[in-house]
Amino acid sequence: MTKPIVVINPNSTEAVTEAMSAALDPLRLPGGPEIECLTNADGPPGIESQADVDLAAVQTRDVVARRANSASAFVIACYSDPGIHACREATEQPVYGIAESGVLSAMSMVERFGVVAILDKSIPRHLRYIRTLGFESRLAGERALGLGVVELSNESVTYGRLLETGRQLRDVDGAQAIVLGCAGMARYRPSLEDDLGLSVIDPTQAAVSNALTISLLKSS
After folding, report:
1. What are the contacts of 108-112 at 24+ separation with CB within 8 A?
2. Contact predicate 114/46, CB 8 Å
3. Any residues with CB less than 8 A from the CB of 197 and at least 6 apart, and which?
4. Topology agreement, domain 5-98+204-219 and domain 99-202
5. How does strand 35-39 pair with strand 73-76?
6. Where are the alpha helices (DSSP H) in 14-70?
7. What are the start-end ranges of the E strands in 82-193?
8. Is 39 a residue whose pLDDT tops 80?
9. Rounded to 5 degrees, what angle do the CA atoms 186, 26, 84 make?
10. What's the CATH number for 5-98+204-219?
11. How far apart, in whole angstroms, are the C-alpha atoms of residue 14 and residue 116?
């Protein structure tokens, strides 16, 4: 029997995990591996600062270490990819970060991509990571909604901000595709893609798609 793909929400907000799990339903294929979504109950409510990232990195690594032999792959469902390298040391199974996966997906489709962050203070942290990955030259821009993780559940406010920010990335920054810079925004992706006329990538879906492909190839 194929082991599950374990998707870890590094923050402690269960509503984020539930929304993320619902967005992954199309990837729950008949005969395919289970996609198991976990909440880091001891984590911060949202990953909104470098201190949050550093705390969540240790906690996420501990989750991976505990599950190292009972998963076919791991996905770190936070756009800062907290602890990704430590997690890769803790298991022989693949570990996918949603930021890395989302950006790679965008770059496979277009020359220049934009990122929607939730807070302005997230942007310098994201840019540091983009530079370490070597992708800075392909980034058209990153703009913030001005909403925290918990506030994303207010659909009317969040979608209005997403649409406005997406238009700025498209029309001002020249982005040809948009990456959602948080695991909690997947439910807005289809409408946003239609309204913007651009590909919009939910990075958690991108990361789980990668994990699913490898899992299916291994089991074939």
Report:
1. 109/176, 109/177, 109/199, 110/176, 110/177, 110/199, 111/138, 111/176, 112/138, 112/139, 112/140, 112/174, 112/175, 112/176
2. no
3. none
4. yes
5. unpaired
6. 14-23, 50-66
7. 95-97, 113-117, 139-144, 177-180
8. yes
9. 55
10. 3.40.50.12500
11. 22
Please say if the pLDDT value at position 220 is more than 70: no
Sequence-distant contacts of 62-67: CB under 8 A, at least 24 apart: 63/6, 63/8, 63/38, 64/6, 64/8, 64/90, 64/91, 64/95, 65/90, 65/91, 67/6, 67/91
User: Which numeric CATH code is attached to 99-202?
Assistant: 3.40.50.12500
What are the pLDDT digits (tens) for 93-148? Answer: 999 999 999 999 999 999 999 999 989 999 999 999 999 999 999 999 999 998 77
Give me the long-range contacts of 93-97 (CB less than 8 A, separation at least 24). Answer: 93/68, 94/211, 94/214, 95/64, 96/207, 96/208, 96/210, 96/211, 97/207
Q: For 169-204, how does the pLDDT look when each residue is reduced to its tens digit (9 = 90+)? A: 999 999 999 999 988 788 899 999 999 999 999 999
Do 113 and 176 contact (CB within 8 A), yes or no? yes
The domain spans of the chain are 5-98+204-219, 99-202
> Which amino acid appears at position 121 of this protein?
K
- Would the pTM of this model clear 0.90, i.e. be above it? yes
